[in-house]
Design the sequence.
């Protein structure tokens, strides 16, 4: 197949770069959309032009421009492998109905950070997703570490006892959610397969491109009701909140902790800058976008937990982080533990943004109650059971551990006390 040329777009970007008054025209947005549709779809764009486009977007600053980011996110999600969820399935509809609470309607939620803040903190977003899962339908989108010691997928693999957890076929996700758990982990490379052809170009460029920006926004599942997105510096707060608004998100919050140049989570050691999407009021015309409200959150004043230095919330290896998560899920971590409180405030925020409660402190108490009842542990073990039932990996069947009591599996996949184990 002959290569497609994106030279007209590259000329437009050169003109934009040279202009005194920089205006993102509809022509630029349209051409960018078409170019990425070709790059990620069936069209062929040569490596030189791919590299030129990514370079131009980065050095012009357009890779952080909300209209451009929104356009590329839409293309990314359109090109992604589908997660076939039957929202009309009787059992799945019943599950969603039972989860409804106050202003939460039983839709999917996600919590993710952009990374790249340089702080190398604990896997807070992933742990917070686990802690919130008794109350919410969680579709956690994640990947391996890029700039930290332990990425979301690295820790999840360690927690599960093997990388089989990353190989769950997309067509089984709905069955797992319906029959076993409120939780699903969506490993980004499984769903964004078209990015594989860009790996060499991105590696050779050696700097951040728009794909580093759009990844956290590209959760492939349909029906996301609420999401929290952490950004690495305050300047990106308005950009990402505007992108969420343009995407049609009605419940969402972008956060940046006031630590150094920024922390891509709610900070355990001081204030956090927040950009919250406020849904259009009832009776608004169809398609009315949310508004954006700016404010600050503080661990003590808003969540009722103590302050902790960020140094006490650093990431360890994936295995060490997984062991900490196991202790949290078993409710073995003492009150006031720095990492515990760090996870509490972030998971509580997800409950508030989803609409389970409108009080940050009440949300903390709900998370604590879920831990006391080991409800979060049950959701995680339910997810692992579903992965064993529907996963195609022999490792998923053979590797069985029980987080609850740490029982070592027997060779036949049954624990020594005679009960079925869980990965």
Sequence:
């Amino acid at each position: 197949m002959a290569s497609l040329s994106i030279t007209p777009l590259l000329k437009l970007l050169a003109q934009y770069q040279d202009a005194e008054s920089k205006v993102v025209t509809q022509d630029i947005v349209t051409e960018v959309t078409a170019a990425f549709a070709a790059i990620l779809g069936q069209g062929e764009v040569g490596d030189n032009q791919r590299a030129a486009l990514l370079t131009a977007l980065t050095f012009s600053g357009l890779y952080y421009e909300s209209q451009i980011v929104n356009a590329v996110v839409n293309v990314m999600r359109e090109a992604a492998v589908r997660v076939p969820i039957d929202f009309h399935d009787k059992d799945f509809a019943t599950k969603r109905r039972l989860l409804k609470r106050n202003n939460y309607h039983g839709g999917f939620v996600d919590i993710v950070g952009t990374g790249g803040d340089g702080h190398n903190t604990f896997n807070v977003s992933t742990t917070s997703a686990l802690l919130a899962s008794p109350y919410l339908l969680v579709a956690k989108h994640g990947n391996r570490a890029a700039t930290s010691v332990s990425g979301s997928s690295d820790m999840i693999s360690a927690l599960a006892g093997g990388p089989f957890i990353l190989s769950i076929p997309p067509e089984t996700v709905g069955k797992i959610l319906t029959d076993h758990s409120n939780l699903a982990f969506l490993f980004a490379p499984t769903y964004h397969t078209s990015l594989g052809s860009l790996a060499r170009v991105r590696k050779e460029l050696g700097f951040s491109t728009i794909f580093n920006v759009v990844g956290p926004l590209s959760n492939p599942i349909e029906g996301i009701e609420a999401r929290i997105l952490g950004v690495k510096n305050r300047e990106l707060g308005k950009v990402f909140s505007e992108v969420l608004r343009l995407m049609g998100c009605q419940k969402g919050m972008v956060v940046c902790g006031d630590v150094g140049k920024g922390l891509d989570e709610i900070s355990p050691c001081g204030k956090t800058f927040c950009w919250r999407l406020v849904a259009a009021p009832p009776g608004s015309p169809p398609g009315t976008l949310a508004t954006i409200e700016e404010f600050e959150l503080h661990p003590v004043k808003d969540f009722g937990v103590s302050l902790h230095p960020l140094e006490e919330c650093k990431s360890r290896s994936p295995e060490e982080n997984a062991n900490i998560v196991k202790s949290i899920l078993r409710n073995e971590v003492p009150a006031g533990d720095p990492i515990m409180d760090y996870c509490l405030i972030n998971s509580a925020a997800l409950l508030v943004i989803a609409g389970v409660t409108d009080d940050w402190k009440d949300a903390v108490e709900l998370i604590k109650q879920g831990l006391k009842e080991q409800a979060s542990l049950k959701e995680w073990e339910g997810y692992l059971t579903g992965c064993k039932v529907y996963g195609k990996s022999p490792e998923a069947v053979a590797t069985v551990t029980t987080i609850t009591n740490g029982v070592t599996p027997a060779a036949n996949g049954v624990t020594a006390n005679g009960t079925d184990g869980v990965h």
In short: Confidence is low (pLDDT under 50) at residues 394-402, 407-423. The chain is about 45% helix and 10% strand. The two ends are 46 Å apart (CA to CA). The beta strands are 108-113, 137-142, 183-187, 224-230, 252-257, 272-278, 291-297.
